[in-house]
């Protein structure tokens, strides 16, 4: 199912109620609602299982979706981003007709609801949909963006979820947002275009941005939405940025050639990311942490790991090497190399908060159920929200579906 919600109060409440009687009683269960703390919760019945999501902001529209299959069980998405799954879950009552009630459990307050605090939901609901099949992660993402295809032509980030599979990719000269929107040609300047060399969109002449005579070097690069270039230098222990059309770079985090573990210093930083609000995230590898620098500040706040305390508990990191973020900047996925795992944290987390393991077993192995030296990671929102992981010691690149227990080799 899929719906938009805007809460006007905090606390619990029923979003969706199933029952065989019009008063909400009889055979009944509450598949979607809020805990008393305000967390969005999706439930499955017999055996009881649930997926707990984040606390939703008040007076803000949020997209919620759940999918079900016997193999993966119940899966919860918030704003198109995978939150979690129950794993294998049987359907206890296939084919049973039910009455679906929105925003209230009526007289069914005693129905199976697990951690959902049943009662009246205060707020707005919109675009509620129920599907007779399991939607893919890409389809859920499209619903969360309002980009479902209705005109028979797949433009931008649309999908054919509501067109019965009749949407087509765009021909040369048509408008586009992403290369996947075009028919075997790249998307250049929002137009499906034949590149200068076959389908290649690259210019064959490079432009020097920083010369080797400067002190600025890098381990990894990142370009933000304003075309500002960021570089992280693990040897000199700082992060620099080069604004568009600027001649000189400037230090934005850490102190040049100065190692430390306080809020203004770094120790062998390995990766950098800028979110949609201009906040900067730095993977501070040898301090076993992730530092978040609020837009315009030089003092970092630890949001994952424990400073100078490397380890493999859920609240720790151990020489992490790369990270990636979902399209809404809600979750951060970290390639935790020495713990042989990928672990997820909220971007508003704090030091000492437990993360959630989403890939790997914690034991180095070259099977498709484990990782071996995860070093770099990318979040592929255009391909079923999969993680693409560089498996350094395994000499491979693997694609790991979120919610899955094994990877696909590449």
UniProtKB/TrEMBL annotation:
GO terms for molecular function: metal ion binding. Keywords: Calcium, Disulfide bond, Metal-binding, Repeat. NHL repeats lie at residues 266-296. It comes from Adineta steineri. This is LamG-like jellyroll fold domain-containing protein. Its cofactor is Ca(2+). Gene3D superfamilies: 2.60.120.200, TolB, C-terminal domain (2.120.10.30). InterPro entries: 6-blade_b-propeller_TolB-like, ConA-like_dom_sf, Neuronal_Pentraxin_Related, NHL_repeat. PANTHER family: B6, PENTRAXIN. Signal peptide: none annotated.
